[in-house]
Amino acid sequence: MKVLFIGGTGFISSAVSRLAVERGFDLYLLNRGMRTAEVPGSKRLTADIQQPADVKKVIDGLRFDVVVDWIAFKEEDIERDLEFFRGKTGHYIFISSASAYQKPPAHYIIKESTPLVNPFWEYSRDKIACEERLMKAYHDEGFPATVIRPSLTYSTNFPIAIGGWGCYTLADRIMKGKPIIVHGDGTSLWVVTHAEDLAKGLLGLFGNAKAIGQAFHITTDEVLTWNQLYQTIAEALGEEANIVHIPSDFIAEVVPRLKGTLLGDKCWSVVFDNSKIKSFVPDFQATIPFRDGIRRTVEWFAADEKRRRVDERINEEMDLIIDEYRDKGQGTSSDK
Which residue from 49, 107, 148, 259 lies 20 to 30 Å from 59 (Cα-Cα)? Predict the structure, then answer.
């Protein structure tokens, strides 16, 4: 089966790319070639997806059984893909986001039928618009679209709410005994999924005609609190987490850019019903518990000092939030 990934070398998609090659897919990766990550066994198509003429040149004459777009974020990205792949693929898969589900949720158990509405986060609203455009193309012209809604997924990154994405900042703070922030009281329920588990469900849908016109989330069934997540990260680092609990509203007020990721996603208790993906991919089962997966993440960072990048902007934001909270007499250094 000939498969094209638009992207394919990111934190999450790299793991999926590796498993796709391992399972014998003829995998092409369309990207700018800027990342050093290589996926042995894949074929590279070098072009900037935002430059239509260049993309048309590299895909000219090629037809793919499956196309997966990992980096479409706005409706115009979907329009672009429709132009590229009408009549050139049997199955188009859009990577959306579980943050598109109703916020605040009417019920903590999320199914694919849960409404899509997010007044807090533009990123999520853009993903919803992408989904709506794709489903219109499916209904109006038979475009063979499937939507995937991953929740917080990780591999060589720390799956956290506050502390930096794709860097070592949170781990560095933990190692130095500095306070870290957990939103709310840390007892809300959450789900984090290893990218290799996501890959099992996603690859199982490739070329499945019954999946066309459908949406799926693909997550682990393991449910943890945010306190457990951060404490497990600290344990993997061989340290104890110095946690300061701060209300999400307060955090968003001090650092407005965090409003979306907190109020639009991670401050709510969310548990995913995976019965739909299991019915389409009967052998799908997430098998990597967070305790094991995060140890692998820590080992990945430990293997190369260059990977352990500390983002001082994130450090400054965390210190600012904690200082503002304590200045208002609402927290002490003993908060756990």
Answer: 148
